[in-house]
Amino acid sequence: MIEMGNEVHILLVEDDEIDAEHIVRSFRQMRIANPITVVNNGIEALKVLNGEAGYERLPRPYIILLDINMPQMNGLEFLQALRKDPKLRQSVVFVLTTSQNDGDMRAAYADHVAGYFLKSQATYELLGLPTIMKNYWRLVEFPVDHQRLGNSSPS
């Protein structure tokens, strides 16, 4: 059973504080007002998703934006742990990374990510990312009205 909140939450798993600020600022500039929770690595992300170790559980529905190159538990290790957990395996994940390594991209898609975006192209890609996320959520997961993921009108 899918728990439904009032809006789609975004979990940003990013260890670079400047990149995280840039992503959050970009979303705000595009008038994406969804709540964004930022964590520094995969271990922290799992704690937030499970509501463990003093972290408040991230309410559903949510979308995860994931970096690959992080300390402690990198993005690919996080994806493997996420997909093995019966409560979390259906989570929607978009990779947002500097890694142009084909092996990383193949590994991410093997663990069923919804998209793979390069930070080096973030100026162009971030403009389309909210629309892609909204359309993915609307078509694949379940109907979401345009007010629940961003404030722009439906296309």
Features of this protein?
155 residues, alpha/beta, Rossmann fold, 39% helix, 15% strand, disordered N terminus, disordered C terminus
Describe this structure in words.
The chain is α/β, with parallel strands linked by helices and 155 residues long. Helix content is 39%, strand content 15%. It contains 5 helices and 5 strands, in the order E-H-E-H-E-H-E-H-E-H. The protein has helices spanning 17-29, 42-50, 75-84, 102-110, 122-141, and strands at residues 9-13, 36-39, 62-66, 92-97, 115-118. Helix 4 (102-110) links the parallel strand 4 and strand 5. The relative contact order is 0.18.
Within the largest sheet, what's the order of strands? 2-1-3-4-5
Order of helices and strands: EHEHEHEHEH
**Secondary structure: helix percent:** 25-40%
**What do we call the CATH topology?**
Rossmann fold
Largest beta-sheet details: 5 strands, parallel
Detail the topology: elements first, then pairings.
Layout: E1 9-13, H1 17-29, E2 36-39, H2 42-50, E3 62-66, H3 75-84, E4 92-97, H4 102-110, E5 115-118, H5 122-141
Parallel strand pairs: 1-2, 1-3, 3-4, 4-5
